[in-house]
Design brief:
Blueprint (H helix, E strand, L loop, with lengths): L63 E6 L12 E6 L3 H11 L3 H11 L1 E4 L2 E2 L11 H24 L3 H10 L8
Antiparallel strand pairs: 1-2, 2-3, 3-4
Length: 180
Protein backbone atom coordinates (compact mmCIF):
# COMPACT_ATOMS: atom_id res chain seq x y z
CA UNK A 1 0.00 0.00 0.00
CA UNK A 2 1.48 3.34 -1.05
CA UNK A 3 1.77 6.24 1.39
CA UNK A 4 0.00 9.36 0.27
CA UNK A 5 -1.19 12.59 1.76
CA UNK A 6 -4.80 13.35 2.39
CA UNK A 7 -5.81 16.73 0.99
CA UNK A 8 -6.93 19.24 3.58
CA UNK A 9 -10.35 20.81 3.50
CA UNK A 10 -9.61 24.52 3.77
CA UNK A 11 -11.97 27.30 4.76
CA UNK A 12 -12.78 29.87 2.11
CA UNK A 13 -10.63 32.90 2.91
CA UNK A 14 -12.29 35.09 0.29
CA UNK A 15 -9.38 34.96 -2.15
CA UNK A 16 -9.29 32.92 -5.32
CA UNK A 17 -6.19 31.04 -6.40
CA UNK A 18 -5.95 33.24 -9.49
CA UNK A 19 -5.62 36.53 -7.60
CA UNK A 20 -2.86 37.28 -5.14
CA UNK A 21 -3.95 38.60 -1.78
CA UNK A 22 -3.55 42.36 -1.52
CA UNK A 23 -2.54 43.56 1.90
CA UNK A 24 -3.02 47.24 2.65
CA UNK A 25 0.33 49.00 3.02
CA UNK A 26 -0.18 49.83 6.71
CA UNK A 27 -0.85 46.16 7.50
CA UNK A 28 2.23 44.72 5.81
CA UNK A 29 4.29 42.55 8.07
CA UNK A 30 7.39 44.24 9.43
CA UNK A 31 10.61 42.29 8.93
CA UNK A 32 12.09 40.76 12.05
CA UNK A 33 15.59 42.01 12.84
CA UNK A 34 17.98 39.11 12.54
CA UNK A 35 20.20 40.48 15.29
CA UNK A 36 17.96 42.13 17.82
CA UNK A 37 19.77 43.72 20.75
CA UNK A 38 19.42 42.37 24.25
CA UNK A 39 16.82 44.30 26.27
CA UNK A 40 17.91 47.22 28.42
CA UNK A 41 18.64 46.33 32.03
CA UNK A 42 16.09 47.52 34.57
CA UNK A 43 16.14 47.41 38.34
CA UNK A 44 14.39 44.56 40.09
CA UNK A 45 14.61 40.94 41.02
CA UNK A 46 14.75 37.75 39.00
CA UNK A 47 11.85 36.91 36.67
CA UNK A 48 9.34 34.44 38.10
CA UNK A 49 10.42 31.65 35.75
CA UNK A 50 14.11 31.84 36.72
CA UNK A 51 15.52 28.99 38.82
CA UNK A 52 17.90 30.51 41.36
CA UNK A 53 20.45 28.39 43.20
CA UNK A 54 20.00 28.46 46.97
CA UNK A 55 22.27 31.08 48.51
CA UNK A 56 23.36 32.61 45.20
CA UNK A 57 24.79 36.10 45.66
CA UNK A 58 24.64 38.66 42.87
CA UNK A 59 27.17 41.44 42.24
CA UNK A 60 25.93 44.88 43.22
CA UNK A 61 25.50 47.43 40.43
CA UNK A 62 26.07 44.98 37.55
CA UNK A 63 23.86 43.81 34.72
CA UNK A 64 22.61 40.26 35.25
CA UNK A 65 20.86 38.28 32.50
CA UNK A 66 18.37 35.49 33.20
CA UNK A 67 18.17 33.31 30.09
CA UNK A 68 16.00 30.36 29.12
CA UNK A 69 16.14 28.12 26.07
CA UNK A 70 13.23 26.14 24.66
CA UNK A 71 13.92 22.38 24.61
CA UNK A 72 13.68 22.16 20.82
CA UNK A 73 16.50 24.70 20.44
CA UNK A 74 18.94 22.45 22.30
CA UNK A 75 20.75 19.23 21.46
CA UNK A 76 19.15 17.54 24.49
CA UNK A 77 15.43 18.40 24.19
CA UNK A 78 14.52 15.48 26.45
CA UNK A 79 16.01 17.47 29.36
CA UNK A 80 13.37 20.19 28.96
CA UNK A 81 13.85 23.92 29.18
CA UNK A 82 17.42 24.98 29.95
CA UNK A 83 18.36 28.08 31.86
CA UNK A 84 21.38 30.07 32.89
CA UNK A 85 22.24 33.21 34.78
CA UNK A 86 25.09 35.34 33.46
CA UNK A 87 26.88 38.58 34.22
CA UNK A 88 29.92 40.35 32.85
CA UNK A 89 33.47 39.25 33.42
CA UNK A 90 36.08 40.61 35.80
CA UNK A 91 39.71 40.78 34.74
CA UNK A 92 40.31 37.55 36.70
CA UNK A 93 37.43 35.84 34.85
CA UNK A 94 39.02 36.87 31.55
CA UNK A 95 42.40 35.44 32.59
CA UNK A 96 40.76 32.12 33.50
CA UNK A 97 38.92 31.98 30.16
CA UNK A 98 42.01 32.84 28.13
CA UNK A 99 43.96 30.22 30.10
CA UNK A 100 41.43 27.55 29.11
CA UNK A 101 41.71 28.71 25.48
CA UNK A 102 45.44 27.82 25.69
CA UNK A 103 46.47 30.49 23.21
CA UNK A 104 44.00 29.24 20.59
CA UNK A 105 42.17 32.32 19.31
CA UNK A 106 39.45 30.08 17.87
CA UNK A 107 38.58 28.88 21.39
CA UNK A 108 38.77 32.27 23.11
CA UNK A 109 35.24 33.48 22.34
CA UNK A 110 33.63 30.25 23.54
CA UNK A 111 35.66 30.25 26.75
CA UNK A 112 34.89 33.92 27.47
CA UNK A 113 31.20 33.21 26.89
CA UNK A 114 31.25 30.14 29.14
CA UNK A 115 33.03 32.11 31.87
CA UNK A 116 30.16 34.59 32.21
CA UNK A 117 27.74 31.74 33.08
CA UNK A 118 27.23 31.63 36.85
CA UNK A 119 24.32 29.21 37.19
CA UNK A 120 22.85 26.49 34.97
CA UNK A 121 19.38 25.06 35.41
CA UNK A 122 19.20 26.42 38.97
CA UNK A 123 22.56 24.95 40.04
CA UNK A 124 25.84 26.85 40.56
CA UNK A 125 28.34 26.22 37.77
CA UNK A 126 30.86 23.45 38.47
CA UNK A 127 34.23 24.11 36.82
CA UNK A 128 35.90 20.96 38.21
CA UNK A 129 35.52 18.99 34.96
CA UNK A 130 33.42 16.32 36.67
CA UNK A 131 30.12 15.15 35.27
CA UNK A 132 27.89 16.39 38.08
CA UNK A 133 24.64 18.30 37.63
CA UNK A 134 26.40 21.68 37.56
CA UNK A 135 29.01 20.63 34.98
CA UNK A 136 29.50 23.58 32.66
CA UNK A 137 31.09 21.36 30.01
CA UNK A 138 28.18 18.90 29.90
CA UNK A 139 25.61 21.71 29.89
CA UNK A 140 27.55 23.55 27.15
CA UNK A 141 27.46 20.44 24.94
CA UNK A 142 23.78 19.74 25.65
CA UNK A 143 22.52 23.22 24.78
CA UNK A 144 24.00 22.85 21.29
CA UNK A 145 25.27 25.26 18.70
CA UNK A 146 22.13 27.37 18.35
CA UNK A 147 22.03 28.27 22.02
CA UNK A 148 25.82 28.65 22.28
CA UNK A 149 25.66 31.16 19.42
CA UNK A 150 22.98 33.17 21.23
CA UNK A 151 25.09 33.18 24.40
CA UNK A 152 28.11 34.39 22.41
CA UNK A 153 26.02 37.25 21.03
CA UNK A 154 24.87 38.11 24.56
CA UNK A 155 28.49 38.08 25.74
CA UNK A 156 29.44 40.48 22.94
CA UNK A 157 26.49 42.80 23.56
CA UNK A 158 27.19 42.90 27.30
CA UNK A 159 30.89 43.62 26.78
CA UNK A 160 31.05 45.89 23.73
CA UNK A 161 29.76 49.45 23.55
CA UNK A 162 26.82 49.87 21.18
CA UNK A 163 27.57 51.70 17.90
CA UNK A 164 26.16 55.04 19.08
CA UNK A 165 28.40 54.97 22.18
CA UNK A 166 31.41 53.95 20.10
CA UNK A 167 30.71 56.86 17.76
CA UNK A 168 30.51 59.23 20.74
CA UNK A 169 33.73 57.81 22.15
CA UNK A 170 35.73 58.24 18.94
CA UNK A 171 34.28 61.70 18.27
CA UNK A 172 34.31 63.11 21.81
CA UNK A 173 36.50 61.05 24.14
CA UNK A 174 39.84 60.59 22.42
CA UNK A 175 42.43 63.02 21.10
CA UNK A 176 45.50 62.10 19.09
CA UNK A 177 48.70 64.09 18.87
CA UNK A 178 52.00 63.71 17.03
CA UNK A 179 55.20 64.27 18.92
CA UNK A 180 58.37 66.11 17.84
Amino acid sequence: MADYETPLDLEDDGYSDAEPAIVPEEEEAKPVKAFAPIPDARPGGAPGWARLPAGMRFPRGRQVAFIKFKPEWTDAPQKGERQCIVWGLTDIDEKLAFGRAMGDSNRAMGELTKQMIRSIDGIPVDWSGGGGPGSIDAWWREIGGKCRQILSRIYTQMNVLPPEDQKHFFEQCIELRTTG
